[in-house]
Amino acid sequence: MMKRKTKLLIEDIVVTTFAILIGLVIIFPIIYCVCGAFKTPSEFLSSGLFPKSFTNFENFKEALAKGNLLRYTVNSLIIAFFGTAIRLVISILAAYCFTYYDFRGKNFVFFLILGTMMIPGDVLLATNYLTVSKMHLLNTYLGVMIISFVSASQMFMLRQRFKSVPKDMREAAEIDGYGDFWYMWRVLLPICKPVITTLFVQSFIGLWNAYLWPLIVTASSPNMRTIMVGITKLNSWEDENYQLVLAGVCISLIPSLIFFIIMRRNMKKGGMDGSLVG
Questions:
Q1: 150: how many CB neighbours lie within 10 A of its CB?
Q2: Which residue of 26, 64, 89, 239 is most buried, as measured by CB atoms within 10 A?
Q3: How far apart are CA 245 and CA 234, in angstroms?
Q4: CATH number of the structural domain spanning residue 147
């Protein structure tokens, strides 16, 4: 009995130590970023990690003034929020159709959509750019958002979650006079709210952190840049202000952090409730 307890104790110590080390590796870049954002140019060149004071907000003020980050933050919020909302609506409707409707070639179409997940996004950059250009959507919010409107992974996850809801609930809703829309709105979506919230947060953060596509689409219109693109413009080979870049990164983390904190309770439920059901 003692040997078993000792073995379990050793296993707990090893797992805990490993988890702490992994956590430190993940959080160290954030600590370095925050500390660097409060440093003066002379302090930044020193070898120390921590600044002399955490009350020096000059880098943040200069980053906001020089980089036009407030405008870029608004751009990113618009793109991330509306892009995520439209993507989620399309994914919910598609998942509902693939769950509750029978039509010829349904499985083939579904697996064809899933097959697009195997195509790297960078491969489609050129064709997407030409398409958006011909649609005259360059340097517009819609041009940045449009390629994110369809998500095969979200369709798949929502379909699997919808399939886990007992079919008796839909039959009972039909008896009560609910059509497809009201069943989905009043019954299905509330049940699946944790999973939907999790997907919303993941999509929002993904669009918020997007860099390459917004950089290409808004290249000729500085006022349409997102915050991730704007941060890179704070530094140049002529004027290496790395502390300004780190201050800009800290500013860009604030909306995502607030959004995550607000949604974390439903995300936790979504992680427990969103297991894939075949």
A1: 15
A2: 64
A3: 6
A4: 1.10.3720.10
29-80, pLDDT tens digit by residue? Answer: 888 888 888 888 777 777 677 888 888 888 888 888 877 888 999 999 999 9
Q: 153: closest CA among 87, 85, 80?
A: 87
Residues 177 and 157 in one domain: yes
The answer to whether residues 9 and 1 touch, using CB atoms and an 8 Å cutoff, is no
**Contact between 249 and 83 (Cβ < 8 Å):** no
Structure tokens at 32: 């370095």
117 and 43 together in one domain: no
Dist. CA 192–CA 93, nearest whole Å: 14
Residues in Cβ contact with 238 at an 8 Å cutoff, skipping those fewer than 6 apart: none
- Which residue from 146, 256, 261, 138 is spatially nearest to 208, judged by alpha carbons? 256
* In a domain? residue 247: no
56 and 115 belong to one structural domain: no
Count other C-beta atoms under 10 Å from residue 166's C-beta.
Answer: 9
Of the CA atoms within 13 Å of residue 67, those in its CB half-sphere come to: 31
256 lies in some domain: no
